[in-house]
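2024-03-11 09:14:02 DEBUG pipeline.ingest accepted 1 chain
2024-03-11 09:14:02 DEBUG pipeline.ingest length=267
2024-03-11 09:14:03 DEBUG pipeline.predict start
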Amino acid sequence: MRKIEHAVAVVSGGSSGIGMATAQALRRAGCRVYEFSRRESRQEGVCHVCCDVTDVAQVVGAVEFVLSREGKIDVLVNNAGFGISGAAEFTASQDAHRLMEVNLFGMVNLTTAVLPHMRRAGRGRIVNVSSVAAVLPIPFQAWYSVSKASINAYTMALANEVRPYGVGVCAVMPGDICTGFTAARQKSCAGDEEYGGRIARSVSRMERDEENGMAPEAAGRFIARTALRRSAKPLRAIGFSYKCFCLINKLLPARLINFLLGVLYGG
């Protein structure tokens, strides 16, 4: 990984899982790292800043705190997020809105606070953590897939808007990662009787895949490398198999892709 001494990096959702692994990988690469999260976190060489990314005032205050100490922010990794599962028909509106507030608008809040400083400096890297589910939407995780697809669209549009100012923007798409994200998922089996038990079977299959998935440290190293590259493709899948899945998704008809997803995760 390219060593960048004295670069300042901010990682949201950096108190555990992929976020923590990314923060540590950036620290090892020579960055001064600040992690934003609601939970207290003590990590070697990483400064914790208490921040709820859905609260604009907290986000602005946290960014100003970093700028007051460092005078700049070179790298932003938008990682904060969570998952919900259940039938789209039975997902409560407030649960879907809460997911979008964190996964999408939390990313937007932090990007909006950091971007003016990067633009005026004429440099900066923004990496948004998306998911392979953005391009391969998972049955009974419809709203999670929607939130990540929105991140991809936002990323690609923003990348073209800020490229003339020396700011690079990309999204990385992990697949199954073995972290606490699995246990923290907000699961609902509402309507499972009407759906013939398919909700529980689908989520159970997904969780088995996650528990046997990639180590968060590998994902963190990939995200850190991407953040420290001079340029990167706007959308990057993590891991050879997931890169292949994304390529196949481009080559095969949507009807066939959706059929295969139904076979795998339709319960």
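2024-03-11 09:14:41 DEBUG pipeline.report The two ends are 41 Å apart (CA to CA).
2024-03-11 09:14:41 DEBUG pipeline.predict end
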